Every structure is written in structure tokens, then in C-alpha cells.
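Need a sequence for this fold. Nothing fancy.
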């Protein structure tokens, strides 16, 4: 596949670097600012201003980070799991103490509302809570006497140096899906956060350092494709966790696995919310609107398509349109909060607007038009948009829009709606709003998606369950979060043993 490079570079210093927030790498326990070379602008999407620049790490920087992680590995592996977990108990307390500061930083570089940022950080903390309990999940298995006088046991051991590459849309939560699990399992780690939102990851890493993690166990590098390729191909990297768009997820999976590394790569999505004629109008409207427009639609689990079945259209569509039109869009980096913030960059906003235009040209009806919000200041604003009469095959039906746009597809009955959705290449989330247990049960059984909601708009699974994309929403075998996350970051060692100390007549003596 041809993966495209992130295009927007800036030259260090040209934006008045004195005013920029530092964006250091963290290698071997040292925070260092990298000089020279073009970096990547980090914006405050509410104002459009550049607030920092992420350096473009070269293969040499990556090598230094991987070597630091490799050097720290033997000592960290030998650290008892309960002691490893104890660092994360302290980390959890520091995250709580610094909660609001993290929330503000998250909102400033990402643009989501403070309430949404609180959700982002809270979900991340839940991963740390999960990681604190990992010692119980590291327990092995034994069969005594698998053959006469012979015992067999399987123990879990860490892999070595693991890597995380993360997207822009959950600056706190997504990196925390990865490294707390990897590190409590006994691995060391190199994180490459999104070059669009590196600051929250840095702030969180400073707390992990404060919690007492030994030098080199956790490292951060920054950059785009060059940096990622150096991580993917480094011989000392054993496993790669990736979250991002589908083409890049596929590229990461193919490149990593061809070098015999473990890879778990979450990709993009198109998620469908079914509205049955018997659905409660108020609750289902709220569920769809929050699911479609929360975080300005920049969620891999966004309810980006409402599948309106039969007579449901009569009541629910006007309610959806009213709710969408009532959403106030505006800057999020101040005390007075709007309902919805900006999208991540100006280019992304333009792309979403182009997709709305393409939908219109291909026959969709614009019931609510968010393009008017574009005038609001220099921020990257776009209002809530609803496209009705979207049909399979249209550009807006095929592509992940990743913005505040809700497609409406009208279907005659549950059966044809399930058939239509099961033709989608993606398989992240799908929900149904209904009062019928029969319809809900049939939906749950037949729908092709790894995370299913019943009267829930965004059925994103929580830390204790796998984040369970299927098909083009996931490349790999073991998902992030929960028990599967622990399995991904560990390998089994099976030992078969026999002791020749039995006397004459022992019941264990060979027959
Ligand atoms: P992206 O794929 O552009 O970037 C993700 C990461 O890959 C970043 O760290 C980026 O630097 C790196 N990258 C980008 N281009 C690359 C290239 N050519 N080669 C190597 N590395 C490259 O994704 P994004 O725009 O940051 O995030 C949005 C996407 O992430 C959406 O598609 C969304 O659905 C997806 N996402 C999925 C999940 C999930 O769990 N399935 C969760 C969150 C986001």
C-alpha cells in the first residue's frame, strides 16, 4: 500500500519559538529538546495558533530510545510484578492529583470540550487501574502428572522492548491503552505520540517518572513517517501497538509482522446506529447526537451513520435535526464552554467540508448544515451536519469522515439493514435503539461488529474488556485492553519436568 506522509511541516524557530511550549523527547530518563530540522506544528484548534512544535526524530534518535529501553529491560524484568504494579498505584494517585491540569492541556492541544477531555483522561486512568491488578493475570497454568511422574507448567514472560504509535483523537487515553499494560507485564517501552498532540503525553510521562519508574523503562520520541519506520524496523523492537487510520494500520501490521514482530493495529471505522420504529425518541435522539457529534465526531466509535428503520423516520428525524441545530460550536480553551469544539486542523476541516459537498453532489440531502460555523474566528470550527438519504456506494457512505457529520440511511426493515451494514469493510461498533428484546437479540447475534450497543450510542468497551474492532478496523490477533492486552505483551514458556528420585515401588515409578 502507499502510505502518505504527514504533509504539514514547520521549520523550528520560525514561529517565535520563545512562545512555544517545549516538546522534548524522553530517552533513558533524560528530557532533551532536539535542535534543528523541520518539525510538526501543534495547534490550539480553538484559536488556530501554533503552541508547540513536535520535532521530527531521525533513525538515530529512535535508535537511542530503543537502546535505552533495551538496556533497562533486564533489570525491569527481574523486578517482581507486584513492585512493578506499585509504581502504577503511585502513578494513578499522581494522575488524580493533576487531573484538571491534564484536562486543560488535552483541550488546548486537541480542541475537545473540557467535559470531553475529562472523559479522555478518566478512561486513561481506568487503564492504569486495570494495570495495577495485572499481577493476578500473569499467573501461569500447571498440570501435575501430565504423564506419570511428569509435570507441565506454562508461565508468562514479557517480550522485551515494545513500541506504541498513537493517533491525535484521544491524547490521554490511547497511549494509556498501551504502556501501563506493557510495563507492568515487565516490558520496556518507546511511545511515539501523534505529532499533532504530543503535549498531554509528555505531561503524563512526567508523572510516571515522578512515580518512580526506573530510567529507560519508558521513553518518548516524536515525529512522522521516518520516526515510525525506524521503530518498525529496529531489530530490538519485539512488539508494536498502533492506533490510527486504516491505511496506516495496515502498513504498520504488514511491515511489523514481516519482520516477525507482534503487532496489534487498530484502524478507522464507520459505525452504525439502528433506530427501530419502537425506539424511545428522546433517549435514542440523545444517544445518536452525543455519539455522532461528541468530540466533534473525531472518535473511532462515533455513531457516524443513523440507520433509520421504517416508520422511525417520522418522529426521530425531526428530533435529530432540532438537536443538531441546537449544538453550540465554539472555542473550548476558556471557562465558558460550548457544546462542541473545533476539529483538529484547518486541513481536516476542509476535507470534511469537501466530503459534505461530495455527499450533496451524489444526492444526499443536507438537513442540518454546519458549514456556516466556519466563520467563527481563526479556530477550526465546523457545525453539526446531517446528511439524509445517504445510500451505499456514495463517497460519504464509504469513507470515514471523522468530523461532526451524521449520515442518515433509511431502510425498510431490520433484516435489510443488517445485510447492508454487514457489507461494510469496517467492524468497530454498531448499536440498536429499540424496546424489543427480540430485535435487540437478533441484532446482537447477526451484526458484523466487534463492539455492540443496545440502547447505548457509543459502545466503546472499557479497560477490562478488549477494545474489539473487527475486519478493517483491526489488524492482529490480540486486542488492546483487558486480558487480551496482557496476552499481547507476554509470551508463554512451557516447561515439562521429571525428577528421578523415586524409590522401588513408588507410585510414580515408570511402568
Ligand atoms: P493517522 O493514521 O494519520 O496517524 C496515526 C499515527 O500514525 C500517528 O502517530 C502518525 O504520526 C502516524 N503516521 C501517520 N502517517 C504515517 C505514515 N505514512 N507512516 C507511518 N506512520 C504514520 O491517524 P490520526 O489522523 O492521527 O487519527 C485518526 C484515525 O485514528 C481515525 O481513522 C480513527 O478512526 C483512528 N482511531 C482508531 C481507534 C481504534 O481503536 N480503532 C481509536 C482512535 C482513533
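Here you go.
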Amino acid at each position: 500500500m502507499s502510505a502518505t506522509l504527514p504533509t504539514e511541516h514547520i521549520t523550528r524557530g520560525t514561529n517565535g519559538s520563545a512562545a512555544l511550549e517545549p516538546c522534548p523527547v524522553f530517552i533513558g530518563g533524560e528530557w532533551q529538546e532536539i535542535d534543528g530540522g523541520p518539525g510538526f506544528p501543534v495547534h490550539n484548534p480553538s484559536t488556530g495558533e501554533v503552541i508547540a512544535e513536535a520535532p521530527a526524530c531521525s533513525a538515530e534518535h529512535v535508535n537511542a530510545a530503543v537502546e535505552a529501553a533495551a538496556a533497562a529491560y533486564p533489570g525491569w524484568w527481574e523486578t517482581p510484578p507486584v513492585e512493578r504494579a506499585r509504581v502504577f498505584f503511585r502513578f494513578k494517585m499522581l494522575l488524580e492529583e493533576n487531573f484538571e491540569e491534564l484536562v486543560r492541556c488535552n483541550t488546548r492541544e486537541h480542541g475537545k470540550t473540557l467535559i470531553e477531555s475529562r472523559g479522555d483522561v478518566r478512561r486513561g486512568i481506568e487503564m492504569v487501574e486495570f494495570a495495577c491488578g495485572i499481577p493476578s493475570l500473569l499467573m501461569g497454568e500447571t498440570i501435575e502428572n501430565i504423564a506419570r511422574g511428569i509435570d507441565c507448567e506454562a508461565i508468562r514472560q514479557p517480550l522485551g522492548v515494545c513500541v506504541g504509535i498513537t493517533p491525535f483523537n484521544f491524547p490521554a487515553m490511547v497511549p494509556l491503552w498501551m504502556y501501563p499494560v506493557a510495563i507492568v507485564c515487565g516490558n520496556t517501552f518507546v511511545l511515539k505520540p501523534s505529532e499533532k498532540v504530543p503535549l498531554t503525553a509528555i505531561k503524563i510521562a512526567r508523572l510516571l517518572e515522578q512515580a518512580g519508574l526506573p530510567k529507560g523503562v519508558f521513553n518518548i520520541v516524536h515525529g512522522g513517517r521516518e520516526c515510525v519506520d525506524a521503530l518498525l524496523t529496529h531489530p530490538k523492537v519485539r512488539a508494536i501497538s498502533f492506533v490510527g487510520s486504516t491505511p496506516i494500520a495496515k502498513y504498520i501490521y504488514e511491515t511489523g509482522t514481516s519482520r516477525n514482530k507482534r503487532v496489534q493495529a487498530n484502524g478507522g471505522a464507520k459505525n452504525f446506529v439502528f433506530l427501530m420504529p419502537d425506539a424511545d425518541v428522546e433517549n435514542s435522539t440523545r444517544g445518536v447526537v452525543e455519539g455522532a457529534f461528541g468530540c466533534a465526531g473525531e472518535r473511532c466509535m462515533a455513531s457516524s451513520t443513523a440507520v433509520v428503520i421504517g416508520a422511525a423516520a417520522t418522529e426521530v428525524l425531526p428530533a435529530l435535526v432540532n438537536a443538531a441545530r441546537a449544538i453550540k460550536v465554539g472555542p473550548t480553551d476558556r471557562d465558558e464552554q460550548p457544546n462542541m469544539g473545533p476539529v483538529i486542523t484547518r486541513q481536516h476541516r476542509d476535507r470534511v467540508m469537501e466530503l459534505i459537498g461530495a455527499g450533496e453532489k451524489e444526492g444526499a440531502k443536507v438537513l442540518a448544515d454546519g458549514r456556516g460555523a466556519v466563520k467563527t474566528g481563526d479556530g477550526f470550527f465546523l457545525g453539526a451536519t446531517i446528511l439524509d438519504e445517504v445510500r451505499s456506494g456514495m463517497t460519504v457512505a464509504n469513507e470515514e469522515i471523522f468530523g461532526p457529520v451524521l449520515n442518515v440511511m433509511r431502510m425498510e426493515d431490520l433484516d435489510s439493514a443488517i445485510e447492508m451494514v454487514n457489507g461494510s469493510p469496517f467492524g468497530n461498533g454498531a448499536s440498536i435503539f429499540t424496546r424489543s428484546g427480540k430485535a435487540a437479540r437478533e441484532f446482537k447475534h447477526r451484526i458484523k461488529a466487534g463492539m455492540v450497543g443496545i440502547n447505548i450510542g457509543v459502545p466503546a468497551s472499557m479497560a477490562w474488556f478488549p477494545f474489539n474492532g473487527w475486519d478493517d478496523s483491526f489488524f492482529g490477533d490480540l486486542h488492546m485492553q483487558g486480558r487480551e492486552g496482557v496476552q499481547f505483551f507476554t509470551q508463554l514458556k512451557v516447561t515439562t519436568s521429571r525428577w528421578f528420585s523415586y524409590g522401588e515401588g513408588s507410585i510414580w515409578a515408570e511402568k
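For context: The pocket of nicotinamide-adenine-dinucleotide is lined by residues 3-6, 165-170, 174, 192, 194-195, 224-225, 228, 243-245, 248, 266-269, 300, 400, 402, 428, 467, 469, 473 (CB under 6 Å).
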